[in-house]
Specification:
Layout (H helix, E strand, L loop, with lengths): L10 E5 L4 H12 L4 E6 L3 H13 L3 E5 L5 H15 L4 E4 L11 H23 L8 E8 L10 H17 L2 H7 L1 E8 L20 H7 L8 H14 L5 E4 L6 E2 L1 H15 L11 H6 L2 H10 L4
Length: 303
Amino acid sequence: MAKEGKTEGKNVLITGGASGLGAAYAEAFLKYGAENIAILDVSEVGKLYADKLNETYKNKVIFVKCDVSKEEEIQNSFQEVLAAFKRIDVIINNAGIMNDSIDAWRTASDVNWQGVVSFTRKGIGHMRKDEDKLGGTIINISSVAAVVRMQHLPVYSGSKAAVLHFSRCISSPTFYDSTGVRILTISFGPTATALMSNLASRFFDQKFANLFFTRNPNPPFQRIDSAVEALLKMFREGNPGSVWISQYDQPGQDITSILNEAYQPLEKLLLPRGPTTLFRNEKIRRRTKVSDIVQTISKLKWQ
């Protein structure tokens, strides 16, 4: 990953870049030599933050207002960044909403999930080497909520699980060898950003709010700088298709092999001759019973 993992000279697009982790990524990439940064956010605060960064980094930052729940705005903002930079080397799909309330869950799903898919597809189309482009890196932000059950935030957890599985599905070795687009995924544990404030009002069911805080009176939050260092470590060292985790202020950890091992028993049961044989052989279909799947799941040892 020597070339791909270098921050120097890169043009970077960051969604949700006006504050929190997105803003911290922007400054970190500039600090380590990025050529240009595009901050995309629905909040006009992004313009003020871009102006502040440009005082130090000599007009390397642009702000583009974009609601990533709206496809037309995604399309327009992507083209605006291309017009300014001519080339996008890195996309960080950071924009996210943690709100399962009855009034916000649908918009949150569009931002957390469909916005990621849209920017990923546009990034692949712009970067792919098999169409005479230069390759690049797309970083999709998931969460530890993608792999553990969180009854108070099932919509958020489901959207982050979708991001994780989507990223793994499209990042096969064949895909990377053909396109030169490196897909990386990182799952964060609770991090000290505004996303974690006033949580109870954003739970799926308010009846669970008191129960959650009774059981978790002081949930541990990692520092923003720890999360940023984990993302940078992944960017510098991560193999195509790898999945990383960052929590408790620990160094970023590649958990790809752990996920592969966890999924392997089910994949062998459901696809005994590999993924290309899915639904191709009637005998295989008849041998795969629901009872066999349930039995296999019950034997899994999760760490």
